[in-house]
Amino acid sequence: MLQEKLQFSRIIQGVMNWGAWGAKMSTQQMAEQIEHVLDLGITTFDHADIYGGYTTEAEFGKAFKESGVNREDVQLISKLGIQYLSDERPYNRVKHYQYDATYILENTERSLQKLNTNYLDLLLLHRPSPLMDPLEIKGAIERLLTEGKIKSFGVSNFTPSQVAMLEKHIKVSGNQIECSITQYEPMLNGVLDDMVTKNILPMAWSPLGSIFKEHTQQTMRVQNVLKTLRAKYRTTIDQILIAWLLKHPSGIHPVIGTSKVSHAKAAVKAQEINLDIQDWFELLIASQGHKVP
């Protein structure tokens, strides 16, 4: 089943923090935020059904409709599969993952209705499950592709072996993983190598890592280098962190979680920074806490 080639803005706007889990934007505020982000050149928006306790997709859909933005001018990603305890899902007793065909089809339809769109540019399985059946997933995804409800299919947080299991039956076009200066393992453990080999688009959630969240030996080492590089490149720490990811040859697309236009603008500007190779490695060494072999 042929999938459309993914053509996303290099910086992807995640909306997890726009609703109940963060900024709690009104419909008008969210509509304005969509327009501001588009003005910066960010055209791709990343969703998941669970965001905001299963409420943010609908809030975004209402705001998108009010914004007047053309559907063809943006790309919408959404994820499904995580079932957790929520007032919106009163039948859930324990957090779990669900990927039977009926659930995939029905949940995708719910996301389309909430987002006020006829199709998703990319549908992702949010997290791998030990119970996922690749043949059942294939059947559901092929039906969604045939009906034009999704343009392409991918995964999130999947290992190379899990991707290979699915790819035996259906093409995986994208994999959204945690990757940053403090979570650099995908660059060394074969995860990104596998994506390059299989022509899978890499997307990185939490691209700033734990630099602004934790005060550890690792973050302190990295901060010391960042302070020097900030002065050298006459930019900000968050821009250096984004530029560090962008330099990787796999073509990582950072998924930024900000609800502030100024931070989104900074992420876009980071595309103009070309880190010197030794500066790049100096950051990696600081994060690892030891020299490269």
From TrEMBL:
This is Oxidoreductase, aldo/keto reductase family protein. InterPro entries: AKR, AKR_Detox_Biosynth, NAD(P)_OxRdtase_dom_sf, NADP_OxRdtase_dom. Residues 10-280 form the NADP-dependent oxidoreductase domain. Pfam families: Aldo_ket_red. It comes from Croceibacter atlanticus (strain ATCC BAA-628 / JCM 21780 / CIP 108009 / IAM 15332 / KCTC 12090 / HTCC2559). GO terms for cellular component: cytosol. One of its GO terms (molecular function) is oxidoreductase activity. SUPFAM superfamilies: NAD(P)-linked oxidoreductase (SSF51430). Transmembrane segments: none annotated. It comes from the Bacteria.
